[in-house]
Write the structure tokens for this entry.
Amino acid sequence: MTNLTQPSSTRENVQVMNRFDLTKRLVSKLHTKEAVIGGIGNNNFDLWANGQRPENFYMLGSMGLTIPIAFGVALAQPKRRVFALEGDGSLLMQLGALGTVARTPLKNLTMIVFDNGMYQITGKQPTLTDSCVDLVSVARSSGITQSWWARDEAHFEQLIDEALTNDGPHFIATRIDDKTPTVSTDRDPVKIRLGFMQALSLKQ
């Protein structure tokens, strides 16, 4: 395994990147019907803007449940790579999910956290990551050994390549800016659910 991280990497000494750009880089690498669970708000807005893949699931109003949903998909379909796109505020609501992931180590699960230190969509109120919580340290302490801060865009792509070719679970944290998405997801929960189920061959 290549050296993907530096021991000194923390939230404070990695490059601030852009969520849309990182999502675009991720999607460009998905070629074998990988499932992507887009967390509420801006996470799935940028996923939607990067192309409506049938294997994408766009969460609506389910804060804190991105990783649990992705965990369930990965557990049910162990041969399919599954990515969870989560925000810092949402993950802070459901930190216990990290322990569950570590306790049932799914080889096909990758969690990507976009951390801008705020609840951006509700008014930019600061989250705990803005002051005292390092999510990579929390993930590692929970037992997820392959947990890294992406130092820059090139390192992010290297981490994605690793997740696509080697066993997980993988936890990738990125520090992002507060740029607002230019589009929003089509808010039709029935259409989203049925389309995702059909893409995963759960409904014909």
